[in-house]
Specification:
- The protein is α+β, with helices and mostly antiparallel strands.
- It has three domains: 138 residues, YaeB-like fold (2-Layer Sandwich), CATH 3.30.2310.20; 50 residues; 99 residues, no CATH class.
- It is built from 14 helices and twelve strands.
- The strands form three sheets. It has an eight-stranded mixed sheet.
- Helix 13 links the parallel strand 11 and strand 12.
- About 10% of the residues have low confidence.
Length: 335
């Protein structure tokens, strides 16, 4: 039996930071897990001190953290052994073979949770229509980072150069929380330089791995992201958007998959529109960064049967500049 492979955001981030020489061994172990994730008291063991079942498999000096069910494995993290066993929190535990009656099905795995993904920089307060982030400014000395933030490290995990100065000066977790960088970038760095609670990471939204070779493509920068495994709530949102009777506003904490839901919605909307009108709809998909534009374009290539002739993916800034150019001519920008 070959198990479906799922990924957490933390695993993706840590996989990016792997040294090139470690990749073959890590890939070999992931291939092994696809066919046999059960503990064996040797390479694969259960970790103590967690209420949920979290396992590890050796890959040289690295450890792959995972959980599994009757038809899936979820890659939670891949970290150096000195970081995995931080303060003795993760202790090998010889667990007897687990019967499949004790593990959950993949459709249960993606049931939506009432608990939002909480970024370390925000508290959350209840509003009439949901949860709102409240900015925190942390002032305590903090805990020293487990790994120095270097330019080389930031480049390997695809952090834009404009954020290097703010991040390379961070020495503690509080420094990182207070750093003036976007939240998704802060979370990516946290995954690499601090000890993770992998039971908590196991609750992150999951993505699906279609082909194991895609992991190597991702590490090399040829593949920018993976498709989110949709939960029932996200599927219902996509179905509503596909009807084309909006507008809709989708709210969610960082990392909950809002952008990915919109990409799936484009695919569904294209399909429904073609059925009704026998032609392509005109679709404009905007983001705020060039990087997200490139990622969205690549993900859509995998989702769409063929690319709509009238689909434009660009940044809000380019749209605004295009409007100015069309009506007033190119602006004369001061040097």
């Amino acid at each position: 039996m070959i198990y479906a492979v799922l990924l957490t955001e933390t695993f993706q981030n840590q996989h990016l930071a792997l040294p090139q020489r470690e990749l073959p061994r890590v890939m070999e172990k992931i291939s092994l897990l696809r066919s046999s994730p059960e503990v064996d008291s040797k390479a694969k063991k259960r970790l103590m001190n967690y209420k949920r079942s979290v396992y590890r498999i050796r890959a040289g000096d690295y450890r792959i953290l995972y959980s599994f069910g009757s038809d899936w494995i979820k890659l939670i993290g891949v970290d150096h052994r000195k970081d995995v066993y931080h303060k003795g929190e993760l202790v090998d535990y010889d667990d007897p073979a687990m019967g499949f009656s004790e593990v959950i099905q993949i459709n249960e795995l993606i049931e939506p949770s009432d608990v939002p993904f909480v970024s370390p920089k925000y508290n959350w307060r209840h509003m009439n229509d949901g949860l709102e982030p409240v900015h925190l400014q942390m002032t305590s000395p903090g805990t020293p980072l487990g790994r120095q933030i270097t330019v080389e490290l930031l480049a390997s995990i695809r952090i834009a150069r404009q954020h290097f100065d703010a991040l390379t000066t961070c020495q503690t977790d509080i420094d990182l929380i207070n750093a003036d960088v976007p939240e998704d970038i802060r979370n990516r760095v946290f995954d690499i330089v601090t000890a993770r609670n992998y039971a908590s990471v196991d609750q992150q939204p999951v993505k699906k791995l279609s082909n194991i070779d895609d992991l190597e493509e991702f590490h090399q920068g040829k593949l920018l992201d993976f498709q989110l495994l949709l939960d029932p709530t996200q599927k219902s949102i996509i179905s509503r958007i596909a009807k084309g009777d909006g507008p809709y506003r989708i709210k969610g904490a960082p990392g909950t998959g809002k952008s990915t839901v919109l990409l799936y919605a484009i695919s569904e909307f294209q399909y429904e529109w073609r059925k009704r009108h026998a032609a392509d709809p005109k679709i404009l998909f905007t983001t705020y960064t060039n990087a997200l534009t490139n990622t969205s374009r690549q993900l859509l290539q995998n989702l769409l049967v063929d690319s709509p002739s009238r689909l434009e993916i660009t940044t809000v800034t380019r749209v605004a500049r295009g409007i100015v150019d069309r009506f007033d001519g190119p602006p004369q920008t001061p040097k």
